[in-house]
Design brief:
About 5% of the residues lie in helices and about 45% in strands. β35 and β36 form a beta hairpin. The radius of gyration is 25 Å and the shape is globular.
Amino acid sequence: MKKTYIINISKIIKKVIFFLSFISLCMESSAQDIGDFTSVEPLVQNSDFVIPSTHIFQKIIEAGDPLTEGGVLPIKNDFTGYVPISGSSENGFLCINSEDTPGGASILNINFNLSSDLWETTLSQAINFDGVAGTARNCSGTITPWNTFVSCEEQISTVDSNNDNYYDLGWCVEIDPVSKTVIDKRWALGNFRHENIVVHSNLRTVYEGADSNPGYLYKFVANNVQDLSAGDLYVYNGSKDGPGNWILLNNSTPSERNTVLTQSADVNATVFDGIEDVEIGPDGLIYFAVKGENLVYRFQDSDPISGTSVPNMEPYVGNTSYDISYENGTSSATWGYGNDNLAFDGQGNLWVLQDGGRNYIWVVENGHSQATPLVRVFGRSPSGSEPTGITFSPDYRFLFISLQHPNIENSSSTQIDAAGDIVDFSKGISLVIARNENLGNGTLGLNDFLINEPLLYPNPSTGNFKIALDKSYSEIEVFVYGINGQLVLTKDKIPPSIEIINIDLSNQKPGIYFFNIKSEGKTTRIVKAIKE
């Protein structure tokens, strides 16, 4: 039988005070950057997605999920490019590549809900590549300064099925995320196995590399701003630890654009073993990852538009071991094979995703050098998977990333994301990551403190939490899960006469926990708790 309630004004006041205190704490914490974290322990992969306890993730979409405009998201999620609408960090498009054959790309309209502090998808659509003879192995890419999406084909084909004199595959494809249509394949950037490109803020210069062995480093200078259809293409020749030059290639006809690799070999261009990502740092230097050499290089261009020399090229990070300090100690971690996608955060830290070795998400701090290393491990991807993509929102609060080809047999555990959804990492998946205070509010809204619903307090806490039940439920069960989905505590068969449930997590590590409150076997609430 339901109980009759008399409003307890003092209780409501206490709850509102707690709510305001919580908001104040969040406002203080929000000053911290996404790159503020303590390394995770540098261990081998397991079935979990391991990130620092100061951060949390939310699933955006995974392979096989239906798209609102028909079809499903393809497998092998790769580049995960956020395109802001009018510069917004809370309203934009998410462009997701599929590194498969045949390939593909999908674009989602996404926005950040200020009430739930969660990302929502309002539309999702596959891109039609039929007008450009199809596509394949859409690997990384870029978001141009004029907010188009460039999807890069990491597969070459010498077939010309539509008789346009260009090979069908091995190009960069520029796409309009608003209309979700292909603008064109950018033939002038050359035909080779493209991993990604980066476009300079001058709106004309592009840096790119061939993901092959032999692979080469290129600079393209467009004839006109915001137009990648024609321009001069150069290949690098010189030292990998010293000066070099840009050599101009022939780049006007389809035949010349089809044979960029042959031209590069003919002029004895410097060979790199698989250039992956190329990015421009906040210091103006150009950084590029070479997968087969276990190195990220950086160089200075004499002038992005007119320069034909490189005053200095140098190895920046990799090809050695680094001491990683984590919560419970320090271990030496080998950089290993496969440095892949790159991105800079707002503090100038370089994030490096690893395709191979232990498939870490590395962070190389601003100010790092090989002599005085500043290297941390942000994350370990689940068994069998590699972290891919990576872009940031303009304000650097949110990091967008994908995890490609997890090993289904080993993905046995489940984890709970910021929305309270269960994620098992058995498929390719695209995520958003942020600091705890910036993503998901654990159902803490003002209405939760003023209506008769379960309330968790104090939150954050050093370990002793209370659940106040303001409704008459039948028998209650409480299941407490850690950030990696492991069950850490159960309280069951709590009679309806109990109005305050004590939960003691003082013996657990600091971090994020989820309280799943059930009645009659059904979940009534999932609440996020922070243990300090």
